[in-house]
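Why does residue order matter? Because the sequence determines the fold. Keep that principle in mind as you read this record.
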Amino acid sequence: MESTMNQLSETGYVVFDRAADFYDATRGFPEGQAPAIAELIARAGNLHSGSRVLEVGIGTGRIALPLLRHVGRLHGVDLSRAMMARLRAKAGAAAIRLYEANALNLPFPCAAFDGVVLVHVLHLIANWQGVLHEIARVLKADGLLLCGGDLGNALHSATFEPIWLAWRAALPAEKVARIGLAQPIGEALPALGWRPIGEPLRHAYTVMRSPQSVYQALASRHWSSTWRLSDAELARGLAAVQEAIQAHYAQPEQPLSLQSAFEVQAFQPPQST
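Structure:
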């Protein structure tokens, strides 16, 4: 684990190679939700059959594949060969142009895209401001950045608050802190001159998760926030979580119905860029 921790601190970003085998099973939307979320993104960006779109951090294509039917040409960049290999094996992936590239140095000319899609990426990159600068560079004059993400993440809702309080209390603060953007995008981008266009668009859905499934996901290191932990730190955090589960949940194996939503906000780049 120490080599992984050192790599994260030296590179300043998180690569998802180790998650390729389980990413879709642990990050996918509930059945039937992906088309509605793709439609939401397209609507937020006024995307159409003539739009040229880039997704930064395309991964296994959980956003890109359903978005294909709304756009003319879709490009994707990612640092993880393993994640993109998963994408290439899926039906329809041949229509996406994939590039192994760092978001801090996008391999495209200026003003190349009508829209750039960004979902759960900036918290994984230390120099997230640099990523935004590159995105502004490759957007056309009237192009939009489309920031999406889970609103009120079900796993971090009040239902599971005892678990996360125990987890954070058991671990060093620097190990549970994000390496990149820590504040909401809706606050960070306007402070840098990005202008929100329209109101945020949301699609609500229900997630079923049990307290014990959260424990198991942590134990299996499914989330990137666990990858910087040593085995000893992970064991300490898991012990605290298990104690919290026993104290607060009468039926820890029982799935609970949690309300969540996917939100998309369009932004126009700073005028001076």
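The two ends are 40 Å apart (CA to CA).
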